[in-house]
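Posting for a labmate who doesn't have an account.
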Amino acid sequence: MAYPAVSTAVDLVNAPLLYKGKVRELYDLGEEMLVVVTDRISAFDYVLDPAVPEKGNVLNRLSAFWFGLTKELMENHVVHIDVDQLGEIAKDREALKNRVMVVRKAERIDIECVVRGCITGGGWRQYQETGKVNGIVLPPGLRKNAALAQPIFTPAAKNDVGHDEDIPFENMQELIGAELALELKEKSLKLFAFAREYCEERGIILADCKFEFGLLDGKVILIDEIFTPDASRFWAKDNYALDIEIDSMDKEPVRTYLSASSWDKNSTPDPLPIEVVEETTRRYLDIYRRLTGKSL
C-alpha cells in the first residue's frame, strides 16, 4: 500500500519553515535549506483538495535525476536527497522519503527562464494576437503545436503573488543586467537542447520548459526544479498533432475535469473526484518511469 499523500510537512520536520509555496516547502538548516516537495496540486491558481499521492515523490526524484544528468552542463544547488542524513530533523522518515532535497542557499534571480521548442499554450495565444512571442517575431502561418525552427527564449519576471509577467529579452537585460541576462539565456537554451534530445530518444516531445537560477558566491547556479511535469510540457509522440489541445503528460486530468465542471474559477473548487486523483497519480508515475527507466 502506498504511503498516504502529504499535504504539508510542517509536522514532519524539526526546522523553521522559511517559505510555503503551492507545492514546495522550504525549511531553514542554517547554511543550507531543506526542500520538501508535498503532494499538493494546483490549477488555475488554486491549490486543490485532496493532495495527489506520489506526486511530490515524482517531482523531487525527477528533479534529482535531471540535476545529476546535467551537472556537467550547469552547476546546481543540490547537496543530497538522503532522508537518513537528516537525523532528528526528520520526524517521520517514511513520510519524507523520496520527497526531500537539501540544497545550498542561493540568491534567487527573479526571472523565470522559459524555453519554447513548439508554439503552444501562452506562446500560441501571443502569436495569434501579435505574430510575436515575448517580442520575438515568428514566421507567419505557423500552426498550433508546430515545432519552431529554433527554440526561443521567452523570459518572465517573477511575481510571488499572481502570474509571472512575460517580458521581452531587452526588458530582462534592463532588470538584471545585459551580461547576466545573456548568460541565463545561453544556459537555458543549452539545457533545453540536452533534455529535448534525451526525451526524443524515449518517445517524448519536450515542447517547452522553465528554469530558475540563483547566485551563490557570485556564480550562477541552477535551483528549484528542472524537467518535471510541473516545470515542463511533455507530449507523447504518439499523441502529437497540429491544431489541437494535446493531452500533456502531467496534471492534465485535473485541468480537464475542472474545465468541464461548473466551477467558476473565482472560488475554491470542490474536492477532486477520486478517479481524477488516481489518474493524475498514474500520469506522474508514468512520466517518471518513461524518463528514468525505473519505477519509483
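Reply:
Got it, the C-alpha cells are right above this. The chain has a mean pLDDT of 96.
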